[in-house]
């Protein structure tokens, strides 16, 4: 294999032979898929060498590992990162040029691995890339979902969900490892700590290689698949159906009881299987379970893998026969927890009956943990109401975050502000109890995908000015600051943006039929649809601008054309979020077809926003919309991708926006709205009156009147409007005036090119901190303490 990728000619020869061998085709008659599959096969085989080398190194040097447990890994297309990180992209590119193949087109044949739905899953994917790239033995652990997060189509202005059958074509990058299968029990009953008569499920690992950048390190992401096993005596319909459901989809509908069982079952399956395979490996290497913490950290990505804590207790006590205290100490030195949520309703809780029924022995262990935890609090003279809030089981539910904090040696938030809110407000009781566990790890993104891959135009500009070393160490991009006011460089940034806008314009034209003006400001909000992210605030301003363009000549004269672009999926059962999608689409049709404003204002909702779409959107943006209600967005990571590609943030001081503004300079972003502290005070005072704001603001009245005309009947968007008037929990109306002002300021600033591109360059130059290489290095320095793989 070695020689195949060593130069263009050997690669060409191998490719021709493989195409013939695999598909009985030649260069001319091979289909796009066959070209792709042949390339992927060859590359995966080649990567196996580095994978084996890495595996052996880690084993022979007895290196500690981090297992990153996450329900989601939103990895997108692997062909992209694998070609780039392995360093073989230029050879393949050259060979394909000779064949008359378009590598880009071939890459696009690969379905996005949509094993996630949002920020948390994409963060996990960036972490895999970064950990391998900084040569740390970190391995992902998750489920092999047969269907990814749904494919979104917009029909009749509404979101419609279609299944994402991403595995329809074989997933070339995975390797099934039968020999490492483990068996997981559900249901049954407990007699003297022994689980009797359980329903056994076989869990088989599928390993997907993760390639470090130019360092020959290849780790893996382990995806578990549930299968029937002969350990279970009766393969009846119920059993087979139960097993087959486990891997069917990510976040199955849990509005009914069966769905809740299924979700908990998914969580236990990948948690228990991951722990079991780590312990099997640990013991096979002749180590004592008492030394587990020396060799593993189990990082818990949000609460979904919480069950590793009681599961590890179970193994240590029931299978390894350690005493409770000794087992607990090991668990407490091995597990670490990352929190990604502030919204109280998002903190996971499981109904006690479901939990106990599905996982009887695990429930007993959680009960015992709870008993000891409560006793400890009592000994410390905690008041009863405090204890009731903090205990692991309360109000008939098992509280996953509480288990995580109690069972972990590290608890981290994902941005400075987020961690402060956790410490001082949301988790303050726990912080007082365990001040040393709490720490911050501000999120990051892999600049390899989110700059090197998606924006070669910008890479070229930077390379020319400061050399190429920054590609390895993104903090060095800071040197670009020296050129912030250089008009020649500013012009280069402007033409980079134009090139990226043109590519996006073409894609949007193909997808939606809407033709965007390339001279306009590209103002983009792409993220999950959630009320706290306030896509609604964006729409209200758009409508206001539209009405003003039609009524105020002076405003129109001074307004620079602006394209507002949205991409967002709403959870299938989230009615309000779906209403907002419909509102955006309705508004866009009216605005885009109004000849009076047509050349100045366009609104586009791109459907099925995913990693691959994101790759077109981030580089084309002038304005990054980060307008969540302050205190609600834990971090955001899209904000960092925009920044790195030279967009200016219009945002609240929320999540990582705070650090973005600090690093790039407050005057290089457009910050508006209530602060987190003000928001908290409004909630505390409990006297927020959105209707009063509405009644005093003619603009809001006009915008609402416009929305009321959109329905099929007069009351169509009542749901949305009444919510704003009567409740407005996310303070949309409170921030409206300030947001309108920020938008006006942005539009004006954009017209002053020297100022705008200075701001843009300052953003790029200060994005170095947001490399996930930095984030991972901090996790390692403070939490994991892994040694580097050094060949
Ligand atoms: C349904 C329930 C179990 C659930 C499913 C998914 C709860 C939460 C999630 C996902 C949360 C998520 O994606 N959080 C985001 O994590 C990012 C990475 O840290 C942050 O940047 C972002 O602010 C946060 O909303």
From TrEMBL:
GO terms for cellular component: cytoplasm. It catalyses: [(1->4)-alpha-D-glucosyl](n) + phosphate = [(1->4)-alpha-D-glucosyl](n-1) + alpha-D-glucose 1-phosphate. The keyword Glycosyltransferase applies. The modification N6-(pyridoxal phosphate)lysine is found at residue 641. It is an enzyme of class 2 (transferase). Its EC number is 2.4.1.1. Keywords: Allosteric enzyme, Carbohydrate metabolism, Cytoplasm, Glycosyltransferase, Pyridoxal phosphate, Transferase. GO terms for molecular function: glycogen phosphorylase activity; pyridoxal phosphate binding. One of its GO terms (biological process) is glycogen catabolic process. Its cofactor is pyridoxal 5'-phosphate. It is found in: Cytoplasm. InterPro entries: Glycg_phsphrylas (IPR011833), Glyco_trans_35 (IPR000811), Pyridoxal_P_attach_site (IPR035090). NCBIfam families: P_ylase. Phosphorylase is an important allosteric enzyme in carbohydrate metabolism. Enzymes from different sources differ in their regulatory mechanisms and in their natural substrates. However, all known phosphorylases share catalytic and structural properties. Allosteric enzyme that catalyzes the rate-limiting step in glycogen catabolism, the phosphorolytic cleavage of glycogen to produce glucose-1-phosphate, and plays a central role in maintaining cellular and organismal glucose homeostasis. Belongs to the glycogen phosphorylase family. This is Alpha-1,4 glucan phosphorylase. The lineage of its organism: Bacteria, Bacillati, Mycoplasmatota, Mollicutes, Acholeplasmatales. The gene is malP.
